[in-house]
Each structure stands twice: as structure tokens, then as C-alpha cells.
């Protein structure tokens, strides 16, 4: 039996080695809907940087298939990534920043179906506003979910209806901020016989009430965004 990976309770407290200022930022024409659709239609040769954040599934859990929607909202000033903050009472991922998503339901054979259903259930985002353009490689989380990130353009106008049992709020972050590795902080977590590297991408935004708030994007969500960067930069 493999040893259980140590769960990171407070990622903000994990030492920061630095940020990836040496990597070029993506912006402008490279982050337009037209360019993204063309990239997914004819993908380059590339490898994801992160395939999992836990060194393997937890020893006592059977891997669970899941999918998330990576929603790129087509605003007039550029694409923005729609993210959620989970409620604090959840058993897994409490309070974390996540994409809309969850486990595959019985009968669902396509991760797109799961991602669209979860987006509708969690934040009330209707499929008629969503244009799926591709997917990123499967990512395995420390909690033993094998997650397919489904990438989609979201076309306004639309209204959200937050499901308060799982989601505390939804917010948007400019895609060009997240595609600038200078904003990708590198952390190294060390425990007994264990060392793990993860990224964080803190975003200074505003809550739904207009109050300033730091959204600490890290873990699986940050890793999938970094994989998106690698895909678009290849």
C-alpha cells in the first residue's frame, strides 16, 4: 500500500521560491477567440507541465473520473476566465478556487457532457452560451480525481445563478494575467519523505459586493492554467 500524500492545509504558508519571469507572457492576438479556436483545431506537438499534484492517488480511494469547464468569457476588453470559490464546508476543496466541474455521473460517456452539466448546476451557466473548443490532458488531483479540463468560449450576455451549497461566488480574471508566468509563483512543500512543487496565481479582485479581495488560485486549478499556457505557447 502506498503512503498517503500529505494534504496542504494552508498553501499561502508554503515558501515561495520565486516566479517564472523568464518565460514570455502571452497576450494580444494570441489570446483572441479566433486564435484559440485555430490552436485547438490544429494542436501543436507539446507536453503538459503538470499531470498531477499528489504523486498518485490516495491509497484508500478508487480514482474518480471528473471533468471541469474552463470557461473563457468573450468580453469586449478581452477574454476572461470564469472561476468559482468553493464553500467552506465541503469535504474536498473547501474554500478553494476552482473551475465549475465535478465527477462524471452514471451514463455520461463524454467529459463535455459532464462539464456542461456541472456548469449549469453549480453556477447556472446555460449551454446555449457555451462554445466548446477543445480539451487539455487529464489531470489527477491529490484527492484521486482524474479530471478532464474542457475548454470553451462563453458568449455574453448571460446571467449566473450560484448554487450556494457548493459555490460561494463566481468571478472573472483576465486571461492575459493568467497567461503571464511572471504571475505564477512557485512553491515547494516539504513533509516527511515528501517534497511537492505547486504554483499559485494570486489575483487582486473584487467580491460580488464590490469589496477588494485576494483570490488565491493554486493547486489543480493553477496547474491546469499553466498547462493551458504551455499549450498556447508551444
- The best one-word shape is globular
Helix content: 10-25%
Give the low-pLDDT segments: none
CATH homologous superfamily classification of the domain at 27-169 and 220-233: Nucleoside Triphosphate Pyrophosphohydrolase
Q: In oligomeric terms, what are we looking at?
A: single chain
- Strand fraction equals 35-45%
Total count of helical runs of at least 4 residues: 4
Structural class: alpha+beta
Rg measurement, Å: 17 Å
Q: Give the overall average pLDDT.
A: 90
Please write the string of helix (H) and strand (E) elements: EHEEEEHEEEEHEEEH
CATH topology of the domain at 27-169 and 220-233: the name is Nucleoside Triphosphate Pyrophosphohydrolase
**What is the terminal separation in angstroms?**
38 Å
Q: Can you identify the CATH class of the domain at 27-169 and 220-233?
A: Alpha Beta
Main beta-sheet annotation = 8 strands, mixed
If classified by CATH, what would the architecture of the domain at 27-169 and 220-233 be?
Answer: Alpha-Beta Complex
**What's the number of extended β-strand segments?**
12
Structure characterization notes:
The protein has 234 residues and is α+β, with helices and mostly antiparallel strands. The chain has a domain at 27-169 and 220-233: Nucleoside Triphosphate Pyrophosphohydrolase, CATH 3.90.79. It is built from 4 helices and 12 strands. The strands form 2 sheets. Strands 2, 3, 4, 5, 6, 7, 8 and 9 form an 8-stranded mixed β-sheet that branches. The radius of gyration is 17 Å and the shape is globular. The mean pLDDT is 90.
